[in-house]
Design goal:
With about 375 residues, the protein is an alpha+beta fold. Helix 7 packs antiparallel against helix 9, helix 9 packs antiparallel against helix 10 and helix 11 runs antiparallel to helix 12. The N terminus is likely disordered. The chain has 12 helices and 12 strands. The two termini are about 35 Å apart.
């Protein structure tokens, strides 16, 4: 029912009971040979995705209608979660066995229907869990799902997932416009060069990726790898506290270069927004450190707008950033470590440090 309500057009509270009643009354029993299923023949609103067999991939999700950038495709609570901080395979396997045994039979069946990339493993429950899990709680836990685990990989993914700790659910948002019938994909291996991606995908998931990023001529793969290596080096440089404090001009120039590289390598794909957010957040930190409130407000807004696209406006972090923006925008100065710095501005002044990032800083 939650999914039904999510996909409905907006209705007034007085109309909602009627909408729910209509949804229930147009659901009928479909009798098939040796099988009885309860299927919605018509739903109140379009189905955002369909589950289909994807050649060479098994089951997957495809867009049921045209989906716009930033639209939520899926919002799902897990079958169960597990810590990723285990001291032994035995403890992990024992925990999974106990947890799975406590599930409702339908949820147990769902878990065992998930793909296992390592059927020969001495720890079969771990193998199935690791093949399908998505991290949550800042990467210290992971979860498996009924539907989300069917979304296949692409290094050029069109969808980004995020964990909502308040809703205790995973959310999938489109990072670009999708056409009806297009497969919905996420990226299993984030930020790596071609050889590392190939190794991880084969070793962890038993798959070989043939997306447009992995299958061009070797020269193009080399250019992509070079950009990715430089992106990682620049991220490390702009996160360095000493650089932020002592070399703000150089740091911001690196942020500008970083954003230009990200746009070149990732534009229109799932990695673009999260990595761009890292770059803008680093630049924001530099500007607040040196009391340039005018630049900080611009950068924080760009980061916020990107987060809304791939996390949704109900993300706890997005709401926290929105509150911080509203609070800071009420202030006339920022309390940075360099409050007397030559870069000091109020929110109504012309940004100073922002200019050092160059022209490739648009969201």
């Amino acid at each position: 029912m939650d999914h039904f309500l999510e996909s409905c057009p907006a209705v007034s509270p007085s109309f909602l009971p009627l909408a729910i009643y209509s949804y229930i009354t147009i659901t009928i029993l479909t009798l098939r040979k040796n099988q009885t299923t309860l299927e919605p023949i018509c739903t109140f609103g379009p189905q955002l995705y369909d589950i289909r067999s994807i050649p060479g991939k098994g089951r997957g999700l495809v867009a049921g209608i045209d989906i716009r950038r930033g639209q939520r495709i899926l919002h799902e609570q897990p079958l169960f979660t597990s810590s990723l901080r285990w001291t032994s395979h035995k403890d992990f396997e024992d925990y999974l066995a106990s947890t799975i045994a406590s599930l409702l039979p339908s949820k147990r069946d769902t878990f065992f229907a998930l793909h296992n990339a390592h059927p020969e493993s001495e720890h079969p429950l771990q193998a199935r869990f690791i093949t399908n899990c998505l991290t949550c709680q800042d990467g210290t836990e992971a979860a498996v799902y009924n539907t989300a685990c069917m979304v296949n990989h692409s290094c050029r993914a069109n969808t980004q997932w995020s964990w909502n700790k308040e809703a205790k659910a995973v959310a999938f948002h489109a990072v670009r416009n999708l056409a009806a019938g297009e497969e919905i994909t996420i990226n299993y291996v984030f930020g790596d060069i071609r050889a590392v991606r190939e190794d991880k995908l084969g070793r962890l998931f038993g798959i070989t990726c043939s997306c447009e990023l992995c299958s061009p001529p070797p020269m193009e793969i080399g250019k992509s790898d070079s950009r990715r290596i430089e992106i990682q080096k620049l991220l490390e440089a702009v996160r360095n506290d000493q650089n932020i404090i002592n070399k703000p001009e150089g740091c911001l120039a690196k942020c500008g270069r970083l954003i230009a590289l990200i746009d070149k390598e990732h534009a229109g794909h799932s990695e673009h927004l999260p990595v761009s957010v890292e770059a803008y957040d680093a630049a924001y930190r530099i500007c607040t450190t040196h009391s340039d409130l005018a630049s900080a407000c611009v950068l924080q807004k760009r980061s916020y707008d990107m987060r809304v696209i791939y996390e949704g406006s109900d993300s706890p972090l997005v709401k926290q950033i929105k509150y911080a923006m509203e609070y800071k925008h009420q202030k006339t100065r920022v309390d940075g470590l360099r409050s007397l710095s030559k870069w000091h501005t109020t929110r109504d002044d012309e940004p100073k440090l922002l200019k050092l990032m160059g022209t490739n800083t648009g969201a």
